[in-house]
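Q: For a teaching handout, I want to show students what a protein-ligand complex looks like in token form. Below are the inputs, and the small molecule is iron/sulfur cluster. Please produce the holo structure.
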Amino acid sequence: MQEYKNIILVSHCLLNELAVVKNDPGRKDSLNLIKNLMKMNVGIFQLPCPENRMYGSNRWGSVYEQFDNNFYRQTSRDLLNPIVNEIEDYIKDGVNFLGVIGIDGSPSCGIGLTCKSNEFKGEISAIKDFASCVESIEMTDDNGVFMEELEKLFNDKNISAKFYGYNDRNQNEIIEKIEESIKNK
Ligand code: SF4
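A: Here is the structure, written as tokens, with iron/sulfur cluster included.
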């Protein structure tokens, strides 16, 4: 029986690609990251997918501004509150909380990279120039709405949490940083 002394939260779609918006290329190389976490004896705690919970698997891709409203934020907090409580209990029990791995570019789970636009909204069939509407989307160095709410909940409880944004190119960097955190504990 393994003795788990470390725990990390991961965005839902790192383990379940079915949650990703249709036609999104998905997380092509997350298996390597997950295998390495398991080798390091890290308990992997899967967050719920807020977009799938609220809008289902046939939703359109969205931008930050579409989720930046009180309902989405409150529902995110409702989903996250019991998880933050559970993490607090693990910490009290001596477990090393390693932080959170989110998804680069997501309007919900982005960490330091999210997609934004003030024009990407409304009735699609009424948009005359849809291409320029799509082109209005830009990547900014902000967090997604779900991660913003998660950070606030950790702050409320004085839990310090490191946040990592996954993309298919930076997994070795994330693995090295997590190894470092385990060594320095
Ligand atoms: S909302 Fe988060 S968990 Fe859901 S598909 Fe997007 S990045 Fe993945």
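A: Two things your students might notice: Residues 98 and 181 are 7 Å apart (CA to CA). The pocket of iron/sulfur cluster is lined by residues 11-13, 19-20, 49-52, 103, 106, 108-109 (CB under 6 Å).
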